[in-house]
Amino acid sequence: MALISVPANKRLLGKALATIAAVAGLMASMMTGIAQAHGSTVDPPSRNYGCWQRWGSDFQNPTMAQQDPMCWQAWQADTTAMWNWNGLYREGVAGNHQGAIPNGQLCSGGRTGGTRYAALDNPGPWKAATKPRQFTLDIWDQARHGADYLRVYVTKQGYDALSTPLGWNHLDLVATTGRYAPSDHYRVAVNAGSRTGRHVVFAIWQASHSDQSYYFCSDVIFQ
Ligand SMILES: [Cu+2]
Q1: Hey, where are the domains in the chain?
Q2: How far is the CA of 32 from the centre of ligand 1 (A)?
């Protein structure tokens, strides 16, 4: 039977076109996803950015459980917290960061996106960057949103990052900035005073393209 009716051919063609349209749509949404990428504190690295950097290509390696236990628990809890290291933000906070984020949930931005980032709130021996007390914090803005301001907090001396979930009451505001024009990196000088040992640096990046507020916890050890 070599005869194929014209309507059948049309149906086939229609199906093929629908498939092409679906694939094109998927590709467009993936490209949009890339275009809408956002950012994170990359130095000192935020918790999920650090876990992504160190283990993104090897995240199922069981030696992580011993070598980097806080990353291990984060990867076990939800891998998308690392794949979306650049997406830890809330929208429509209108500047009331303390109202939007309860104590104990600062490192997940108040559990933004449900439980995705919740493991980042867990206190413990996160890999920490060794820093002098005066250092430069670097936020990488993949999307070139610009910044209305950055705010940088550091935990008070005596706060135990190994056992205590981070609250606003543990923090001192140590740096604030004005606007940054859209760029790849926003850098701010931080002076941690006389602090020593392990601390958490908490940074807020208020993006300029819309009311989009980012929250990053970075673990440091001051020399
Ligand atoms: Cu963004």
Answers
A1: 1-35, 38-222
A2: 12
Contact 147, 180 (CB under 8 A): yes
Give the Å distance between the CA of 143 and the centre of ligand 1.
Answer: 6
pTM: 0.85
Q: What is the pLDDT of residues 56-84, one digit of tens each?
A: 999 999 999 999 999 999 999 999 999 99
Q: 95: alpha, beta or left, given left = phi > 0 and alpha = psi -120 to 50?
A: left
Radius of gyration of the CA atoms of the chain, in A: 22
- Can you name the CATH fold of 38-222? Coagulation Factor XIII; Chain A, domain 1 (2.70.50)
Contact indicator for 143, 33 with CB cutoff of 8 Å = no
CA of 83 to the centre of ligand 1 (A): 15
